[in-house]
Design a protein that fits this description.
Blueprint: H1 2-18, H2 21-34, H3 40-64, H4 70-90, H5 95-101, H6 111-133, H7 142-145
Helix pairs in contact: 1-4, 2-3, 2-4
């Protein structure tokens, strides 16, 4: 029973994590057409910024309407996923086109840059692990403020 519960929670985590990605990718591809100096870093910035805006906006909208429960969050994430996929296909983008047109690094990274990226990624994964595994129940958190 414990494995099934962990598997279910992992699937919910993946739905919330990957739900907005097609919409973010569609917006990054649209932005790529408009910007002549588009790079990998700019693409990642667009992806992460739009992902954050979509997730925060969704939580604020659902919280304001007092519908911030698991069912509505999952349905909203699936709806956002469908909107993103339909936007990609309405522009006649195939999966191979999307992968081929993602920007690449223009020059290789040196050892110091790789060390900085590795350290930042390690800290990010450690923080994400703490946030994903420890419940937030203290009085001064989003658990308290967002529903209000």
């Amino acid at each position: 029973m414990l494995i099934i519960q962990h598997l279910w929670q992992f699937i919910l985590f993946l739905v919330i994590l990957f739900g907005p990605l097609p919409l973010c990718l569609a917006l990054a591809l649209i932005n790529q057409k408009e910007n002549s100096r588009y790079s990998l870093v700019h693409c990642l910035l667009v992806l992460l910024t739009t992902w954050s805006i979509i997730q925060v906006g969704l939580c604020l909208i659902l919280g304001t309407g007092e519908k911030l429960i698991l069912n509505t969050v999952i349905l909203s994430e699936i709806l956002i996923f469908i909107i993103g996929i339909s936007l990609i296909y309405s522009k006649k983008y195939s999966l191979s086109f999307v992968v081929k047109n993602l920007p690449h690094l223009k020059q290789s990274l040196n050892k110091m840059e790789l060390l900085i990226i590795g350290a930042t990624a390690f800290v990010g994964f450690a923080i994400a692990n703490i946030l994903a595994t420890d419940p937030i129940t203290n009085y001064d958190s989003l658990w308290f403020h967002l529903p209000a």
